[in-house]
C-alpha cells in the first residue's frame, strides 16, 4: 500500500502543478509579444502540455486514488468532501482544455478573466483537498 500512496501523491503533485501552469500559459498566450527567433506558437505548447502531461497525470492520480480508496477501505465524511473537491479539479481541467481550443480558434474574448478564474478555483480546490486529507475532520 505505501507504493500506491507514493504513486498517488507524485501524480497528484504533477497534475496540480500542470493545472496551475496551464492557466498561467493561457494568460501569457493572450497577450501579444514581439517577434522572437525562438517563437513556438502557444497553442502548440499548450495542447502538448494538456494532452501529454496534465491529462495522463490526472488519470493516474484519479486511478491511484481510487485504488488507494479500495485497498485501504477508506471511509468518512471527509472523503465525500475530498471527492467533491477533486471533481471540481477535474472540471477545471476540462475548462483548461476548452480555453485551449478557444485560443486555437483565436476567440480571445474573455480569455483573461476565464483563465484567472480557473487558476484561482483550481488552487482553492487543491488547498481544500490538502486540508481535508491532513485533518480528516469528519472521521
TrEMBL record:
Record pathway: Porphyrin-containing compound metabolism; protoporphyrin-IX biosynthesis; protoporphyrin-IX from protoporphyrinogen-IX: step 1/1
A Pfam family the protein falls into: UPF0093
Catalytic activity: protoporphyrinogen IX + 3 A = protoporphyrin IX + 3 AH2
Cofactor: heme b
Any GO molecular function: protoporphyrinogen oxidase activity
InterPro entries named among the record's database cross-references: HemJ-like
Enzyme Commission identifier(s): 1.3.99.-
Annotated TM spans: 6-27, 48-71, 77-100, 112-134
Subcellular location: Cell membrane
Membrane topology: Multi-pass membrane protein
GO CC field: plasma membrane
This protein's UniProt keywords: Cell membrane, Heme, Iron, Membrane, Metal-binding, Oxidoreductase, Transmembrane, Transmembrane helix
Cited function: Catalyzes the oxidation of protoporphyrinogen IX to protoporphyrin IX.
Name of the protein: Protoporphyrinogen IX oxidase
Organism (species): Billgrantia montanilacus
Amino acid at each position: 500500500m505505501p507504493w500506491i500512496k507514493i504513486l498517488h501523491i507524485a501524480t497528484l503533485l504533477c497534475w496540480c502543478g500542470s493545472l496551475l501552469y496551464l492557466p498561467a500559459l493561457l494568460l501569457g498566450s493572450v497577450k501579444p509579444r514581439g517577434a522572437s527567433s525562438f517563437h513556438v506558437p502557444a497553442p502548440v505548447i499548450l495542447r502538448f502540455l494538456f494532452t501529454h502531461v496534465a491529462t495522463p497525470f490526472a488519470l493516474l492520480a484519479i486511478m491511484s486514488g481510487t485504488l488507494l480508496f479500495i485497498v485501504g477501505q477508506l471511509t468518512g465524511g471527509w472523503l465525500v468532501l475530498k471527492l467533491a473537491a477533486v471533481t471540481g479539479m477535474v472540471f477545471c481541467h476540462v475548462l483548461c482544455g476548452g480555453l485551449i481550443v478557444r485560443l486555437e480558434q483565436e476567440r480571445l474574448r474573455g480569455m483573461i478573466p476565464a483563465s484567472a478564474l480557473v487558476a484561482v478555483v483550481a488552487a482553492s480546490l487543491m488547498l481544500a483537498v490538502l486540508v481535508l486529507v491532513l485533518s480528516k475532520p469528519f472521521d
